[in-house]
């Protein structure tokens, strides 16, 4: 399974080290958010890795909604369970819930289909910054604190018309940023395409904290650093 390098299993628990989480963020998602660096003070496991592990274990459903309730730290033993109410929950041994998933419709466990959809979504999702967020912040005249950029995954959901043998691609359909004080709620809406036709739709919500006035020079430096890190990673790969 393509996720084997990004987690380990002990009995009924999954565990993700900081190094595994960081490798997934960079290699699979193309995500260089510093919060996923192993030495980050507020390190957290990428939400997209939890998303991928849920699909790998429970399959891909036609309609799914993911709510990220708390950030997962390094090496936290996690239980992935389907509860009596039909919802999938990811918890630690103390019962703290990090992710809650609702699903309905048909389900496929075809590994090729599940992996193709996972890779497709995660590659899209990893482009939060600078591809989607920078234009939104610039348009609204705000930006995150460059010294402590904090962009948190809040939720995502999608609906598929069919599951049979699709090789999907995701396209951004619309994007918006609602600013309230120092907090911004970004909504990214997307189309799911296959063979040139639309086979589904979805959306993703992000929370951007610590907003301040937009500064073009400062933002340009942040973007430049993003591409420097990406180039350095690509050179090592």
Automatic annotation (TrEMBL):
<protein>
    <recommendedName>
        <fullName>DUF3581 family protein</fullName>
    </recommendedName>
</protein>
<dbReference type="InterPro" id="IPR021974">
    <property type="entry name" value="DUF3581"/>
</dbReference>
<dbReference type="Pfam" id="PF12119">
    <property type="entry name" value="DUF3581"/>
</dbReference>
